Amino acid sequence: MKKISIVIPVHNEEGNISLMHQRIQAVFSKLENYNFEMIFVNDGSRDNSQAILEKLSQDFNNVKFIEFSRNFGHQPAVKAGLDFADGNAVISMDADLQHPPELIPELIQKWEEGYDVVLTNRKYPKEISFFKKKTSEIFYRFLSRISDVDLKNGGGSDFRLMDANVVQSFRNFTEDDLFLRGLTSWMGYKQTTISFVAGTRNAGESSYNIKKMMKFAFTGITAFSVKPLYLAAYLGFMFSVLSVVGYGIYVIESFVSGTEISGWASLIMTIVFFGGLQLIILGIFGIYLGKIFKQVKERPNYIVRSKKL
Ligand code: UDP
Ligand code: MG
Fold first, then answer.
1. 242 and 165, same structural domain?
2. Would the keyword Magnesium be found if you checked this record's keyword annotation (predicted)?
3. Does 80 contact ligand 1 (Cβ within 6 A)?
4. Angle separating helix axes 210-224 and 130-146, nearest 10 degrees
């Protein structure tokens, strides 16, 4: 019998874990030909989540948990689940029921048809703010454009199924700044996408605020594109051409009209402008340098405090 592993990152989800477990259990009670396990990854929750997980894993053999030593983030939590899952296919999904477990049979169906990766394309329900919908849409379009990965279809969701082979490939990644959506797209394999309407969060509140979303977006861009680094070269080239042309015009003009070149204000503005531009570009270099610095230390993505597998 084939085995499906479900990986669920948990950060302060005490109000959702039991319901999540029940809903998945219900789904698999109708899928008789499959074994399944649930691997909850407790990413440094400060609420009762760990106690609930320990109880649940005592009551049910196929409920497992990995407890982190502190909060490492959503992406490392999913990675940890993939590192420990041994199913023939692994499904990752959020704990807050925004990813409907009832979609699991459809994911498995596509996998059985021969796809290695089944992505989901999240359509937002009416209740989600216009702001979040738009910013996320613009971000994924922008990221797809400036990087080598295509995230337009199904990129924006961490609800996906991966074949054991794909999961094995994932284990070889030692990247510091994990951006699993990008990595999945980058890896290739046979991929397909299905759509679903995301629900609203069941209980508790979202761990992603604007600051975390910005950081996530930044990670995505700098992990998958070096184009910002080329900005300096492009701009430098553009301004060199402009200055040669401008210089020519000024010299000819001063000969023809016989006047000195005037314009103290414009000179200062030019100096300020280029000073600013140089700092921005230096900053971009700094960001990439920082990433290299973090990477060469080769720290692990997460630390496990306890686990039951
Ligand atoms: N999560 C996590 N670590 C974090 C933040 C979130 O493991 O630092 C988990 C969280 O428990 C949930 C999933 O990641 O299962 C998605 O988080 P959330 O629902 O807060 O994000 P949103 O759906 O609002 O984007
Ligand atoms: Mg959520």
1. no
2. no
3. no
4. 10
CA distance 294 to 288: 10
Element (H, E) at 307: strand 304-308
Q: Give the phi and the psi of residue 10 in degrees, each rounded to 5.
A: -130, 120
Could you tell me if 234 and 153 lie in one domain?
no
Shared-domain flag, residues 208 and 239: no
Same domain? 216 vs 285: no
| Domain, as residue range, for 240 | 227-296
> Residue 30 C-alpha to ligand 2 middle, in angstroms?
26
Same domain? 213 vs 202? yes
Q: Residues 119, 196: contact at Cβ < 8 Å?
A: no
Residue 94 CB–ligand 1 contact under 6 Å: yes
Residue 77 CA, ligand 1 centroid: distance in Å: 10
Q: What is the ipTM of this complex?
A: 0.94
The reply to whether 231 and 207 lie within a common domain is no
Length of the chain counted residue by residue: 309
